[in-house]
Specification:
The protein is of the alpha/beta class. The protein is 38% helix and 10% strand.
């Protein structure tokens, strides 16, 4: 699999985002899915993929603790593109067990607790969503975090046994918003209230203008820990 990943990175080294997506949706004849949190980057990819193929597979993870604004943009997106983004929820029994172990907001108490919460609410549903997927499309960008600086366009995700693709990895925040404005793409209104990165409501807050775009996520932790586990390499 790693040989295939290396080959794809070499082949698409100078390709545009659109060329990468057209390859995935039109040429691979394999199962491709975009995981969307309805953040700005994912909305750009949704728009581009729907323009290429109306039947593009797009799913989201509903953790049960998302901000109201995220549900609003989910609704707007479904209406604009006449689609229904697939929703994967955590299992009720897993949530009940998590509550017994750490209470309702125990994730603030330690990194272990927070990652346990992410594992139940995000990672387990993601595994179900990617079970029959060959290429997992994400909205990750290299400049978003210190944990993403060395990311490649194509990477093998060992945890889910899929090839992860990040077509926007070299885009700037300005590029993202220029596209949204140009194509009138629905976006989460929290972005305009100082939330560049949006996750679960209890784990997300606004950041100061000019601040690190991921500093509002799990703000009580050190920067090198700020991943939920969805995008960590197995060896990390």
């Amino acid at each position: 699999m790693q040989n295939r990943v290396n080959q794809l990175n070499e082949e698409f080294n100078n390709s545009s985002t659109l060329e990468v997506l057209e390859f995935l949706l039109r040429e691979t004849k394999q199962k491709v899915a975009l995981s969307s949190s309805f953040g700005a980057e994912d909305q750009v990819l949704t728009d581009m993929m729907i323009r290429i193929d109306k039947r593009a597979n797009i799913f989201t993870l509903d953790t049960g603790r998302l901000p109201d604004e995220t549900y609003s943009v989910m609704h707007e997106t479904n209406l604009k593109y006449n689609i229904k983004v697939k929703v994967f929820f955590p299992k009720a029994t897993d949530i009940e067990d998590l509550y017994k172990r750490q209470g309702i907001n125990g994730f603030y108490d330690s990194i272990w607790n927070r990652k346990s919460c992410c594992a139940v609410r995000k990672i387990a549903p993601l595994k179900r969503a990617l079970k029959s997927v060959d290429f997992w499309v994400t909205g990750l960008r290299s400049s978003q975090s210190v944990t993403r600086e060395d990311m490649k366009l194509f990477e093998f995700d060992e945890a889910n046994n899929v090839i992860k693709v990040s077509p926007l990895k070299d885009w700037s925040e300005q590029d993202i918003w220029a596209y949204i404005k140009s194509y009138k793409v629905p976006y989460n209104k929290l972005h305009k209230l100082g939330y560049p990165s949006i996750g679960c409501a209890p784990c997300t807050r606004a950041v100061r203008e000019g601040g690190d775009i991921r500093s509002g996520r799990w703000w009580w932790e050190n920067p090198e820990h700020k991943e939920c586990g969805l995008h960590l390499k197995k060896s990390a």
